[in-house]
Amino acid sequence: MDPKTREILESIYSRYHKPQYLGLDPIQYVREFDRPLDMEIAGLVASALAYGRVETIRENIRRIFNFTGKNLLDFVDSTSFPQKRKMFKGFKHRFNDGFDLALLFECVRRVIQSSGSLQALFLRGLQSDDGTIKRSLDEFAMSMRAWAKKISGTSGKSFVYFFPLPREGSACKRLNMYLRWMIRGNDGIDMGIWSGVSPSMLIIPVDTHVACLAGQLKLTARRTADWRMAEEITGQLKKIDPSDPVKYDFSLCRAGMEEFRSCLKRE
After folding, report:
1. Sign (positive or negative) of CA dihedral 28, 32, 37, 38
2. CA 136 to CA 194: how far, in whole Å?
3. Are 49 and 57 in contact (CB under 8 A)?
4. CA distance 194 to 44
5. Binned average pLDDT, 10 residues per bin, the chain of 267 residues
6. Which end of the chain is more exposed for a tag (fewer CB within 10 A), N or C?
7. Closest Cα to residue 48, out of 154, 181, 151?
8. What's the rounded Cα separation, in Å, for the pair 48 and 100?
9. Which among 231, 202, 217, 200 is positioned nearest to 259, based on CA atoms?
10. pTM beyond cutoff 0.85
């Protein structure tokens, strides 16, 4: 890697990898929970909705958690699927509606009843010879789709949007972000509540901002934000920190957003 690129990355990391920049990130709402099971549920919900305008994402996540309260596991456990559907009737977040949200919470309930936690479900797909989380993420997403179909008779297009698959080429930005939150150590940004998965196996969550900056820094030659781009960027970052390559994700995203918002102001 070009030493100048490494220097730029470290500078971006030093500047933006700080809790003071959590204000635009959905993880701020997840960090308000105390119990690990509540946190992993909150993380899945918040990351699932992390697409679209930042202001809308924040507003909808806040609405959901104001409604469920801080005992999220208790809420999930004590309500049936019909009750969840009734509670979230009228909810809308771009491609997803109240039915999708109720189904997501019900899938979580079934997973915890059968496996004990979302972490346990994810670890079931992890093999000792896996170099990355790709296979386990695929199986995790497929399991959630299967639960949705079992519960409601469908895992329709809008619900499936919560659970894209690496095998189909998706960058899986929101799921990779969720895994980053759960697996990287608690550094004031990520929470590190899952064990059994090394941060070295994570793949960087690629959104528009990260893709743009990664292209400028020559971390990828690809133009499409897909799984191959995410792997390519992660591979380059491993040359700097093989044990924790995605530690740069939060700061790269913040830097990209700052640049984007500055451009809007100049216009």
Report:
1. negative
2. 14
3. yes
4. 13
5. 91 95 94 97 98 94 96 97 96 96 98 98 95 98 97 87 96 98 97 96 94 92 95 97 96 79 36
6. C
7. 181
8. 11
9. 217
10. yes
